[in-house]
Specification:
This protein is an alpha+beta fold. It is built from one helix and five strands, in the order βββββα.
Length: 113
């Protein structure tokens, strides 16, 4: 294992002391991990703290999320209403067709083979 920065990999390794510990910095979340070089067990983890949001910002995000979910619900409800009307019209047409041809039996699916 090499020590120092590895070019092109985006992470750092360094030996933290004579005890054979290795410190690694995650390129994604900038978390520092201190691991035992011999066993690979993580000895310490130092996560970078996320910046806290203001209460007003969180309320605004919540309102936006609620509005988006209300819009989606409204669209789904309208679509369901249209679907109900469409199925009702199809059923009425099928009843009219059956009333126009009362002697004709529907095809038997076993006769189609």
């Amino acid at each position: 294992m090499s020590m120092g920065n590895k070019k092109g990999t985006g992470h750092q390794d360094r030996v933290a002391g004579s005890m054979g510990e290795v410190e690694v910095v995650c390129p994604c979340c900038q978390t520092k991990l201190l691991a035992d070089a011999a066993t690979g067990v993580v000895l310490r983890e130092d996560r970078k703290k996320k910046p806290t949001k203001s209460f007003e910002k969180m309320l605004e995000e919540d309102r936006a999320r609620r509005e988006a979910s209300d819009d989606l619900f409204g669209k789904a409800l309208a679509s369901e209403g249209h679907q109900k009307d469409l199925l009702q019209r199809k059923f009425e047409k099928a009843l009219e067709k059956a009333a126009a041809e009362p002697d004709k039996k529907p095809p038997n699916p076993f006769d189609l083979d």
